[in-house]
Specification:
α2 crosses α3. The chain folds into two domains: 145 residues, Rossmann fold, CATH 3.40.50; 106 residues, Rossmann fold (3-Layer(aba) Sandwich), CATH 3.40.50. The protein has eleven helices and ten strands. α11 links the parallel β9 and β10. The strands form two sheets. The protein has a six-stranded parallel β-sheet, sandwiched between helices. A four-stranded parallel β-sheet has the order 6-5-7-8, with helices on both faces. The chain is an alpha/beta fold and 264 residues long. The chain is globular and about 50 Å long.
Length: 264
Amino acid sequence: MNKQAAIGVFDSGLGGISVLHEIRRLLPVESLIYVADSAHVPYGEQTAEFIVQRSLAISAFLLAQPVKALVVACNTATAAAVTELRQRWPQVLIIGMEPAVKPAVQASPSGKIGVLATTGTLRSARFAALLERFASDVQVVTQPCPGLVELIETGQLNTPATRALLSGYVEPLLTAGCDTLILGCTHYPLVRPLLQSLVPSHVQLIDTGEAVARRLQNELGKQGLLADSQLPVDCFYSSGDVHKIAKTLASLWPTPQPVLALGF
């Protein structure tokens, strides 16, 4: 494997950009290839079979580039497909996402934790296993957030519509006394400033983007695959309307980037 090869990252849409930021911050010389499967966003409302099929197709596309590692920057896709991806490509470093249940349990003073996530993540066996493993002694209040991903996808990060929708999802968690909120979808850190304005200052917001970037760094280091000093190249693909995606991406990524059509 060429250590100068890019890292491949994909999500149902642009939510994985929150993870991409953490990877770029920690690994500034790595080239990145990002795929937003925006024609099928959100994965949280799709069947597990469909998510597996899309994840296999996108992973095959990225590995053909080639990339030296895959990051499944989507909690729902990780829950549905990461096991099958690892079985299909056992020689490839594949890193997934999962809601930050363990760090939230460690951080919560009261033992009352709220989870904001997609329907698909909350109903997954992987999430149930996380709760059983790490949260048996705490109170966990889950809150599905239909419609939120779609607003974020269109760049509505701080509009009245997004504020109203998010407020409605957060209020039951605050009423239940939750002092720690898990952002269980990679889209949600993109509205962190808005979310912080809706919760008291003592309420902690936890996501896993930074932890995933650290794990990627550690695993690449173990395999001798960290890139030497180079000018990194970023490349973005989407299965959706590339012009609309590029417009939203301009508000999420520090440098202007064209978005190429995925083609399937």
